[in-house]
Amino acid sequence: MSEPDVDLEFGYSLSFPLPFRVFALTSLGILAWATNIHGLDNFGVDVVSALDLRIGDHHSPSQRYWPDSPRKADVTVLYKNVYRIFITYSVWCLVSWTTFRSLSQGNPTLVDVYGYIPAVFALLTVIILLLPFHVLFKPERDKFLHAIRRCISSSPDSPVYFADVVFADIFTSFAKVLGDVFISLRMLFPGNSLLEPPADHGWTRWIMPTIMSIPYLVRFRQCVIEWLSVDNTSRRPLANAVKYATAFPVMYLSAAQRLVVSDLINEKGKQAAEEAWHGEHPLFRLWLLFAAINSLYSFWWDVTNDWGLELLKPGSKTSGRPLPPRRLVLPHLHSGTALLGSHRPVPESEDHPAYPFGLRPTLLYPLPVYPLLVFLNLILRLTWSIKLSSHLHSKSEGSVAIFLIEVAEIVRRWMWVFVRVEWEVIKKAREARNAGRTSFSDTDEPEFEMITTPTMEHEIDP
């Protein structure tokens, strides 16, 4: 690393230590979730029904956060509360960081003296999260804790709710952040420093990848539960489980790169540690192989299965003639609430099979959004390749580039949520419509319901 790079990294760690970066990334995640709910609601998606949000016993599907027929006001309260949490938490983070900066005064000798400030802040945050009193957004705190409990300790006999799938997928994007939490805790131990991550020796090098693998393990378990369900007739959950399983070799082989560097130092000398390419080492090649498999498989799965697009689906039949995004007319649901709103719905039929190449018949967002998201998702899925750069290879875990990669992953997941929920809503709408056609096959016509904003209307599809 060149001298200017060393100065940049040192100044960065001096002014913005790793614990505060964890706080900032957490704040960004809260904002992303608030804008996800807000944006989906603006596009006419009933977020409460779409995500099947629930409270009470995490094994019981009978209780919801809101009544069976949630109105727009309920969703507005939901995302406004999340916005308030974001503002409150961000102000709290800013106060903590400002206090630390004013006391340490950019002096390296004082940084560790006041290292207890982020530790106290983190401890108070955890206490507030677990606080049993009806203060400081207790309903939202309870929902968050219920979601964690459902994901981690749900019975194999209980269903896997879509809300839990989205929640666990979001946390896979925070896997590196969980690793940063572990590093931050070690930095606060006596003898360590906030200016430099502690060195790993022996078995301790495997702790961080184990912590980072927890969200993937949770998601892997959900897929296995879905696959083993008596109601399942598809191999899709098993293929999805394989996708998450490919992440484990990437994390553990990445930790093993320290063994690669040690071997090369013994063979070539200390200058080998500064080399950007270790391709001659079998362990490095194996890591590179699994990184490529995981990135490309995950990208294909995002586009084909999580988003339902035809672009990478083998044998898909699409027409190149562009059509405007199509809206849905939903069969009357048992809850009395449709999942989507539309002013001029276009029912799907065999007479209108054409849709933009690589997409699908029903789209809720403007047409240019989809190719843009596919392109950005591919680029951000392949950020593992940045680690091959000589500029980044020898940097510490808390470098500027690694922080930006973490931000980029949160942004990628934020975009992913919009299309993932959209596709789930479309699938539910198709199932409900098909069920309505079956129920009314011996009668005159099925009833359809449509919600418009801001009023509710009912229409009969001839």
Short description:
The chain has helices spanning 3-15, 18-42, 47-51, 72-104, 108-111, 116-130, 138-153, 162-172, 175-187, 207-212, 214-228, 236-245, 247-255, 257-268, 282-306, 369-381, 390-393, 400-439; strands at 330-331, 448-451, 456-459. The chain is mainly alpha-helical and 462 residues long. It starts with a helix and ends with a strand.
Please explain how this structure is put together.
Residues 54-70, 319-338, 342-352, 389-395 and 442-462 have low confidence and may be disordered. This protein has a three-stranded antiparallel beta sheet. It has helices spanning 3-15, 18-42, 47-51, 72-104, 108-111, 116-130, 138-153, 162-172, 175-187, 207-212, 214-228, 236-245, 247-255, 257-268, 282-306, 369-381, 390-393, 400-439; strands at residues 330-331, 448-451, 456-459. The protein contains 18 helices and three strands. With 462 residues, it is mostly helical.
**Spatial strand sequence of the major β-sheet:** 1-2-3
Report the radius of gyration as a whole number of Å.
25 Å
Order of helices and strands: HHHHHHHHHHHHHHHEHHHEE
If helices are DSSP runs of H or I spanning 4 or more residues, what is the number of helices?
18
Helical residues, percent: 55-70%
Largest sheet: 3 strands, antiparallel
What fraction of the residues are assigned to beta strands by DSSP?
under 5%
Task: Compute the number of strand runs.
Answer: 3
- Overall structural class, as computed from helix and strand content, comes to mainly alpha
Give the low-confidence spans. Answer: 54-70, 319-338, 342-352, 389-395, 442-462
End-to-end gap: 70 Å
- Overall shape: it is globular
Q: What is the residue-mean pLDDT, rounded to a whole number?
A: 78
